[in-house]
Each structure stands twice: as structure tokens, then as C-alpha cells.
Amino acid sequence: MAPDHSIAPPAAPESEPAVQADPEPLPAPAPPPAPVVLPGGWRPALIAGAAYAAIALLLWTAHSVYAGLSSESHFAWNSETESRLRGFIYEADPLRPFTNVFYHLSYLLGEVAGVTGSYVPYQVVYALLWWARAFLVFLLARRFFPRQIEMCFVAGALALVDCSDGAVGWIGQLNQFGFIFWMLLAAYFLIRATEPRPVGRCVLATALACGFSFLSLWSYESQFLLICIFPLALVLAWGFSLRKLAIFAAWYSVPGCYAVLTVRKYLEFRGATYQEQVVRKTFGMSGLLSDWWFNITSSLEFWKWPRGIHLGADLWLSITAAAVFVAGGLTAAWYASRKSDADHVAAVRPALLAMAAGFAAVVLSFPVYLLLDTARSLWRTQFLSTPGAGLFLAGLATLFAVKVAPRWWRAVAAIAAAPVVFFGSVGTLSRCELHRVNWERQRVLTTAMLRAVPNVRPGAVVIMTGVDRDSDPFGDNLWFDAAVRLAYPGKQVDGMYLYSGFAVPPGGNLKAEGDRWKWDGTGLAPLLLEAPVADTVVVHYDGAGRAHIVPALSPAICRGPCDTRAYHPESVVTGTVSPIAARRYRLGVR
């Protein structure tokens, strides 16, 4: 009989249940990154900020408060003729759209304060940017050298008083201070982005760094190399990581886009851009290196910054500025000694690193300027090197103090840099006085014109004769034309001035043919390419602060045959002086 396979075999006896092992504990969440804590906290920054503010006020209030725009005055005119938002954008150059930002901000501050047209708000913004540059240099240096508070203080102060550039103290270069402000702010937030911090804050800091870099580069181009090289300084200081790779990739996207757009611009507008018109004519290596070294040494040889030292109030102001610096430096040194146990031996390496970093920054500040035919002018070319020069000289002062007075090296480092502050203050005050004097000459002449011709009807052509060639406050008809527009706000007007004997100044480009004024095709085109001779008013300046309307039109003024019978100035002059023009030119001040 076959076996019944449908019957299941007997079950095996049950075994004892296996003992379950305790489950592996879940890994604890990683603690949030510890924030970077600087010795002394916020108090050193307060000391530095207060000292810098006191020095800046001493240097700024002496000559600059009421000084205006003797040239570059088209920025003020742009603010008057554009809307409140569009006034921030400079449309003449697609790669410099933010050139207007701080000029227009100044104009709007004047509107808010009820002093529309006044140049005082421009001066206030200039002084704040002046102070901010020094303070940001201090904050940046302190991230790299947290225990050398006194050296960081010195670096910021020396960046403040650096006057190697002849345009120091002139609001016509407000944009120069502006793009350096954006650049330093971008560098500061890039450092904060690379520090240990939560991801969200890292992303925010990276976005701010890229945004400020964008504002800086699209205001000016000379800082391009410094922006490109700054991440390398961070790698050398704190190493590299994948997180930093992502941050730096975002950072380099900004100068990368700028480089592409710049190449495209010059390929599209060959020879037609302003930058190409001022480029140097020869590019020999010896000439380039010579100009490079000239600018480097000019930025560091502080004893050459003043153009002579004059006895008087400026000398005492300079001594006071140096005294304020020493007081702030000694306070910073005392505070550093309480918060840090670093001895003089430990300070040697930071001092050498500061000198190396500062010198590298100075060297990289000039390559773009070397392309100019005015590379040795020391005019608008030295601003960018001031942070690097301040850091280099601060490191040098610290190294000197360590070698000369090891026991008191912190205090000596602050005192050793006092001569730089003194020479820088003397030079700054002399430059501010020069800019004020240039402005006053133009203001006196323009107010004389306003007293003779309080206002004009739209479309007028204002001609001024009798301007002394040797004390010409305009230098080019471009700036007289701008002054006329600003003297009669809200009106489309043109202007031209003539020297004694009806000699035409540089940029004079109006001439009358028959019964109409016409642009002769040279220089910057006027607002009115054509205007009737009947809309002319001629004002003669007597050289002593007075002017009067000329009753008859001379053919010599027309620069050609013209219908002098059409001249009726009484029909052109109207109304009273605009309050905007009165504030701008301080009409009540003689």
C-alpha cells in the first residue's frame, strides 16, 4: 500500500524564543556650529568707531561742509530731471548703472530734510562713507587678527587719513568712496559666510556678499582683481572645505559675469566708449612697471602726502587728530592687554602677515589704473589702495613696536603710527581747502549771474562774458552749461561762457548763424541743438563778484554773422530765483 503523502509529518518540538538584542541607539544630532567669538566682543569696535568718527569730523568740518560740485555736477542735474527711483540708475554706461546711487541718495536726503538742492546732504553722505571705509577695514582686519586689536585699530585709522589721492575731500568723487564701501562690505559678509554657522545664515551671508560685490563692480571696475583674489586670502588663513567651495562658486559668479559682459561691451562698441578714449597710448613693459611702482610708493610714502605744511588752524586740527588717534589707540591697546595674553613674540607673525596682505592689496589696486594715460596723475587712482596701505603701515608699526619696546609693544604700536595720522591729516585738510576754494570761485560767479538774471523762460541761452582765464572756475564749458541748468532748475536751458576779449574756452560749442544758435558738433551736445537768438541773455561778469545784463549783442559773441537785432534780453528774464538754486549756491552768502 502506498504511503499517504497528504498526512503532514509530526511537528518538531518548539524551541525557546531567541533573545532580542537591544537596538542600536540613534546617533545624536550634531550640535549647531559654535559662533565665532572675538576677544572683547563688541567693545573694541565701539572704541574704533568713536575714534574714527572724531577724526573724520575734525577733517571734514573744517572746509567741506558747504563745498559743492565745481564739476561732475551732471549728477545733481540727473537727480533733478529723473524720478525718485530712476535717479539711482546711470543709463550712460550699462556696466556702471550704480554710479549715481550715492549722489541720488544725497539729493533725496536733501528733499526729506527740506533743503532740496543743497550740497550739505552730499557732504554728509561723503563723510559717512569716509568713516565707514575705516570702520570696515577695522572689522575685516579683526577677523584675520582677532588678538591684535590695537593693530586692527591702527589699520582702520590709517585708511581714514590716507590722502595720497588729490581728490580726497571732494564730493565729485562720491562714487569712488561708494564702490569701495560696497567692496569692503562684500568681503566682510564673505568672511561671515565661511565661518561656522547654521546653513540658513550661511546662505544669507553668501547672498549679501554676492549682492554687495555686484553693486561694487557695476559701479566701477578697478577693484576687479581684489574681488577675485579675496577668497584666496580666506583659504590661506583658514583652509579649504566643500562648504567653502560652494560659497566661492557663488562669489565668483559675479566677477565672472562682469568679465563676460565687459569683453562683449568692448567688442560691440570698439573705440566708442569713454574708457577707450582715456586709455594710454603706449604699453611698453618698462613704462607699465615704472608707473606701477610710482603708484605703490605714492600710496605708502605718507611723509610726501602733504603739499607743504602751513601754520594755522589746519596745523592744530592735524595735531588734534593725531592726539585723538593716540588716545583711541592706547585705549584699544589697554583693552587688548586685558582680553588677550599674546606676548610680543606672538605678535611678530601677525604683523608680518598684515604687512604681506596689505602690500599685496596695494599692488593689486593699480593694474586697471595703469591702462589710463593719466596713470601718474594721483587723481582718482589712489582711493582703492587705502585699505591695503592702512593694513601694511599698521603691521609695520606693530613690528617696530615689538622690536623697540617688547614690554609695552601694544601701546607703542599705537603711538608709532601717530606721524602717519598727522601727515595724513595735514594733507587731507589742504586738499579739502583747495576743493572748497575752487567751489567758492564758481559759486561767487554763479550767484552774480543769478542776481543779474534771477530766472529765465524755457529754451533760453545764457552767455557769460568777462571770465578771467587765469582764475577760470569752470575749466570747460561743459561745467558752465551744467551750472546754468542747476541755476534754473526745471528749465531746458543752455549756457556758454567767454574769456575777456570774447575768447572761447575749452568745450565752447555754441555759435550763432543768422537768427539761431547751433551746436558746432564738438564736445558734449547741449540740451538745445538749436535755439533762437531772440532767446539769448548775455551777462557780463566784472571780476569783483558782480554781473549785469549786456544791453546789445556783439557779433563777436555769436562767433559768426548773426542777427543782433533779434536780441531782447528783457523778454527772456522772468520771475525770481528758484529756492532750489538759492540753497544750492547759497545765494545769501557773499
The pLDDT mean sits at 92
**Radius of gyration from CA coordinates:** 32 Å
The percent of residues in helical segments reads 40-55%
Structurally, how many domains make up the residues? Answer: 2
Q: Which spans of ≥5 residues are poorly predicted at pLDDT below 50?
A: 1-19
What is the distance, rounded to the nearest whole angstrom, between the alpha carbons of the first and last residues? 140 Å
Explain this structure to me?
It is a single chain. By secondary structure, this protein is mainly alpha-helical. It folds into two domains: 45-434, no CATH class; 455-574, no CATH class. It has 19 helices and seven strands. The protein has helices at 43-61, 74-81, 101-113, 120-144, 149-161, 174-194, 199-217, 224-238, 242-268, 274-277, 285-300, 313-339, 344-363, 386-404, 409-416, 418-452, 477-487, 555-558, 579-584, and strands at residues 461-467, 494-499, 510-513, 516-519, 530-532, 536-541, 547-549. A four-stranded mixed beta sheet has the order 2-1-6-7. Strands 3-4-5 form a three-stranded antiparallel beta sheet, with no helix packed on it. Helix 17 (477-487) links the parallel strand 1 and strand 2 (494-499). Helix 4 (120-144) packs parallel to helix 6. It is elongated and about 85 Å long.
